[in-house]
Amino acid sequence: MKIVILSRNKKLYSTRRLVEAGQERGHEMRVVDHQRCYMNIASHKPAVHYRGEVLEDVDAVIPRIGASITFYGTAVLRQFEMMGVYPLNESVAISRSRDKLRSLQLLSRKGVGLPITGFAHSPDDTQDLLSIAGGAPVVIKLLEGTQGIGVVLAETRKAAESVIEAFRGLNANFLVQEFISESAGSDIRCLVVGDKVVAAMQRQGKEGEFRSNLHRGGTSKLIRITPEERATAIRSAKIMGLNVAGVDIIRSNHGPVVLEVNSSPGLEGIERTTEKDVAGMIISHIEKNAKKGNTRTRGKG
Questions:
Q1: What domains are there in the chain, each with its CATH number?
Q2: Which value, to the nearest 10 degrees, does the dihedral of the CA atoms of residues 195, 196, 199, 200 take?
Q3: HSE-CB for 193 with a 13 A CA cutoff
Q4: Cα–Cα distance between 10 and 16 in angstroms, integer?
Q5: What does the alpha-carbon distance between residue 32 and residue 49 come to, in Å, rounded to a whole number?
Q6: Beta strand 117-120 pairing with 151-154
Q7: pLDDT (tens digit, 9 = 90+) per residue, 244-280?
Q8: 3-class DSSP state for residue 268?
């Protein structure tokens, strides 16, 4: 098969591993910088152009689209979908998961366990907003933040009011969530491929840090997840419409709660911690499902 990886940097661990895994199985792998792609929108025959050539006869596309360029990246992916190319994750599903508010609303509607969450832009009553989340301590998140950036733990009501005031001054949308103290700065990353959790690790924030992101100096270790956690991760990915997802779960006193569903999960931490060939499993999923036109949206929405 001819498989295109939409990635801005072919040297990134995840991109390199996907290329290696595909080549080991005899596929033609090509890394394409989606920001340098351009499209003829009005054409009767949809096409994606890249550095002066038309990308033709592509069987599957693996989107590794950064959060800051979701809009253009999903536009390029949508063009591939209109050409009948199989997308590992569809454009609509990626857009859905990148919108923190929309994703939480969808998960909530389906009864998935979530932290108690309030959403605001310029609240008239900060006290009432904080009371929605159960009062201090609370976690306040910028809607557009990634990798733990734009996430603040406000341990007192006064601190929470100050952070909300600052975010209001930025003219930003933000979430206010209950702080689940029993998690002690740890969460579980479940890597879902298809309808299975193929790998899972526990991430622990460094001392004094409530965010467990490995990018922020957190550590990881192998963990055995419960059947309920496994089912929650698979269900969350399915609700988002994602074939491959990193589902972040916290163990709370009332069961597993989902923090986030990531449509472009990094492979380095999970592969090194679990010693599993996750990239190979992703390529295997593509081999089983990459049929022309096998996309639910076909570029719609």
A1: 2-89 (3.40.50.20), 96-112+183-284 (3.30.470.20), 117-179 (3.30.1490.20)
A2: 90
A3: 20
A4: 6
A5: 11
A6: unpaired
A7: 999 999 998 888 999 999 999 999 999 999 999 999 9
A8: helix
Contacts of 153 (CB under 8 A, 6+ apart): 137, 138, 139, 140, 179, 210
Query: What distances in angstroms separate CA 164 from CA 121, 168, 178, 199, 280, one per listed residue?
Result: 9, 6, 15, 37, 44
Q: What pLDDT score does 298 carry?
A: 44
Q: Which of 180, 170, 68 is nearest to 117 (CA)?
A: 180
Locate 21 and state its tokens. Answer: 């895994």
* Residues near 72 by beta carbon (within 8 Å), at least 6 away in sequence: 34, 35
DSSP, res 226: P
Q: Which amino acid is at 31?
A: V
Mean pLDDT of 90-108: 93
Q: Which token pair is 145?
A: 């933040």
Sign of the torsion angle spanned by Cα atoms 213, 215, 219, 223? positive
Full DSSP string of 80-108: HHHTTPEESS-HHHHHHHH-HHHHHHHHH
Query: What's the CA gap between 61 and 56, in Å, rounded?
Result: 12
Residue 73 CA to residue 4 CA, distance in Å, equals: 13
